[in-house]
């Protein structure tokens, strides 16, 4: 009987631990649930007059959620990612998607992660001005070229799109920023590398600028079959998109 009582007690303890763990896990799950913040898209006014257009000649766009309180002069800008196009065929296909035309983009975008306004989820930036720059040029916001073939016309104007968005944001308070973080993931992370120095120069003497590239570094190495796939692909992007060579 004594042994049975010991086993019963052990089982009860184990069950109690399980209940505590499950309860703790349920509590933790409840903590991370956040209300979705949906932010409306804005087209960049006057962009077309400077040639800052998407692949299909639609105007570029971004989403802005205004900062408040102590974060009113903090700005977080995030490049949208989404791969690249490196020739007429791939860019023509892309122009018929939300990654090539603002007319096909969701007009409302969920702001989560670094863009969240929940202090529990995003304690460092929740009350900053937070911007998502939509991606519609296929060249990490860095190209400046045009392709024409009969009735097919495409505009690879990523550099102009970047300029137009920043110019518009300056009018909306970016020019008075004190702290700024430029970020992006994948193709957006590569755009962060491309534009970090330029962005810092635009705000020099006004704001402290930091840049964070998330998964935006692509190594120039052979693939597992021994071929230079990465170099060949990005050479196509640079040439077709009309990147400025340094």
UniProtKB/TrEMBL annotation:
Residues 1-24 form the signal peptide. It holds the Pfam family PAE. It comes from the Eukaryota. GO terms for molecular function: hydrolase activity. Its EC number is 3.1.1.-. Keywords: Cell wall, Cell wall biogenesis/degradation, Hydrolase, Secreted, Signal. The keyword Nuclease does not apply. It is an enzyme of class 3 (hydrolase). The keyword Signal applies. It is found in: Secreted, Cell wall. Its main location: secreted. GO terms for biological process: cell wall organization. Belongs to the pectinacetylesterase family. Hydrolyzes acetyl esters in homogalacturonan regions of pectin. In type I primary cell wall, galacturonic acid residues of pectin can be acetylated at the O-2 and O-3 positions. Decreasing the degree of acetylation of pectin gels in vitro alters their physical properties. This is Pectin acetylesterase. It comes from Aegilops tauschii subsp. strangulata (Goatgrass).
